[in-house]
Amino acid sequence: MFRSSVALTAAVRATGVASGAVPAAGVASISSGKRAASTASGFKVAVAGASGGIGQPLSLLLRNSQYVSDLRLYDIVGAPGVAADLSHIPSKAGVSGYGKDDVEAAFADVDCVVVPAGVPRKPGMTRDDLFNTNASIVQSLAEAIASAAPNAFVCIISNPVNSTVPIVAETLKKAGVYDPKKVFGVTTLDVIRANQFVGHNQNIDPKELDVTVVGGHAGTTILPLLSQIEGAKFTDDDIAALTHRIQFGGDEVVQAKDGAGSATLSMAVAGARFTDRLLAAASGVSGIRECTFVESNVADTPFFSSRVQLGPSGAEVVEPIGPMTAFEQANYDEMIGTLGDQIQKGVDFVNRA
Ligand SMILES: NC(=O)c1ccc[n+]([C@@H]2O[C@H](COP(=O)([O-])OP(=O)(O)OC[C@H]3O[C@@H](n4cnc5c(N)ncnc54)[C@H](O)[C@@H]3O)[C@@H](O)[C@H]2O)c1
């Protein structure tokens, strides 16, 4: 276990941080003996998979979030090192790293767990090809959440999101702690890609856009609703090309990385944006609406990504899909069966004999 100094060990005792935690120096700032309060002063947030390609930049961004007072980094390898590194960035917030056997301590009583743990795609793979490995990882993390942080918001990044979110829901249900308002599939990368691609097509600053992307998070299940962008004017060819690029933008990165993984930096920005907005809403900021994959009845599948009004209890209002053009409706009709199958695959995984 990483210990940077005797003083640090003393700080561990002073803070009462559970054994197994490896608090880095920044933790001294919450060493008054008080637990970090889940109020305007900040939330306790754990990142599971914190040493990975997404986990490290995501943790860096969360380190700088005004809504995070206590950042817990968990991974089966390397999290104490990442925590020590981040602890040298000036912040009042605490940051600590936890190793393989310390998942319960990492998650103890946190307000939010963000999960980018698992293997990423290689060229030629679909997200569904990751199912066999990532399903078990996500299930075991959900079991730990059920036991150590049953009231936490859970933000799932690990693919295939269309299946891993139902896996989390079923696992929490089995433990009797499932709250559908608190389990989110992070589909924000599809939104920021859409903002970027549409912004350049329409000569609008992408930062001013917030494109509604519904459905799921894999290939054709990703359905951007370009017709709902106020003031935009597209040709039919633009719509077909942009829709395809938003659906398969992840493949561009997988191919360009040539076997070294999938989107990490853009995903970290997307994951931090979603987490930050969720925590802002939880702390009382009103009017926050994000597209996210949640349990709902707005479509023909039990989980669906659409715009969701976030608030202190999580997903407070799931908004309807809204008007679709014939092109969008045809895409919806074509993919909804696939999305339903991928959701069912996650449900069946947890309930297998
Ligand atoms: N939702 C999205 O839009 C989106 C976008 C890109 C990638 N992803 C997914 O995110 C996941 C992570 O991608 P990455 O590029 O960071 O991969 P990576 O291999 O770089 O990192 C994954 C990390 O998870 C850790 N890990 C593995 N098993 C674990 C466990 N049981 N508990 C805790 N940590 C564990 C690994 O040690 C590693 O550090 C992949 O499933 C990928 O497909 C999702």
UniProtKB/TrEMBL annotation:
Residue numbers binding NAD(+): 49-55, 75, 134, 157-159, 267
Protein name per the record: Malate dehydrogenase
EC number annotated for this UniProt entry: 1.1.1.37
Top enzyme class: oxidoreductase
Organism: Thecamonas trahens ATCC 50062
PROSITE patterns noted in UniProt: MDH
Cell wall biogenesis/degradation keyword on record: no
GO cellular component entries: cytoplasm
Family matches, as Pfam families: Ldh_1_C, Ldh_1_N
Catalytic activity: (S)-malate + NAD(+) = oxaloacetate + NADH + H(+)
Keywords: NAD, Oxidoreductase, Tricarboxylic acid cycle
UniProt-listed InterPro entries: L-lactate/malate_DH, Lactate/malate_DH_C, Lactate/malate_DH_N, Lactate_DH/Glyco_Ohase_4_C, Malate_DH_AS, Malate_DH_type1, NAD(P)-bd_dom_sf
Active site: 217 (proton acceptor)
Family membership: Belongs to the LDH/MDH superfamily. MDH type 1 family.
Self-association state and partner proteins as the record states: Homodimer.
Domain Lactate/malate dehydrogenase C-terminal residues, every copy: 187-349
Binding site for substrate: 121, 127, 159, 193
GO MF terms, alphabetically ordered: L-malate dehydrogenase (NAD+) activity
Signal peptide bounds: none
Coiled coil: none
Domain Lactate/malate dehydrogenase N-terminal: start-end pairs: 44-185
Transmembrane segments: none
Gene Ontology terms: biological process: malate metabolic process; tricarboxylic acid cycle
